[in-house]
Design a protein that fits this description.
This protein has four helices and five strands; from the N terminus they run βαβαβαββα. It is α/β, with parallel strands linked by helices and 124 residues long. A five-stranded mixed β-sheet has the order 1-3-2-4-5, with helices on both faces.
Length: 124
């Protein structure tokens, strides 16, 4: 499963509340509710991105499209590593974009780099 980077929340994005939208922006402060707790109900893809990252700008819309097509079966939480470096630091993330899938509060799979839509669909 994947996560997105686009920065600004796109159309159809959620409000960031746990159990809320399917596409949200998350922060260090909201990560536990947005990702860890929600991943006990459905898979959560976390897109670790940065505003200066070109591949992030390519991957973000692809992730959003694939997650929107899943119609609530998966959540996408986008985390800007520049604004919130604590979680990526704890996870050892050294390059962006990086996407992790969380299930039951644990990272279970992931990928680095901008993948084409078909590969993102297969991951999700």
């Amino acid at each position: 499963m994947l996560l997105n980077q686009a920065g600004a929340t796109g159309a159809g994005a959620g409000n960031g509340a746990a159990g809320g939208g399917d596409i949200i922006d998350t922060t260090t402060q909201t990560f536990m509710a947005d990702v860890m707790e929600e991943s006990r109900r459905r898979p959560v893809l976390v897109d670790f991105w940065a505003p200066w990252c070109g591949p992030c700008k390519t991957l973000g819309p692809v992730l959003e499209k694939v997650v929107a097509a899943a119609k609530g079966k998966v959540r996408l939480a986008k985390l800007n590593i520049d604004a919130d470096p604590v979680i990526p630091g704890k996870l050892g993330i050294q390059s962006v974009p990086t996407v992790y899938a969380f299930v039951n509060g644990q990272p279970v799979d992931g990928f680095m780099g901008a993948l084409p839509e078909g590969q993102v669909k297969a991951f999700v």
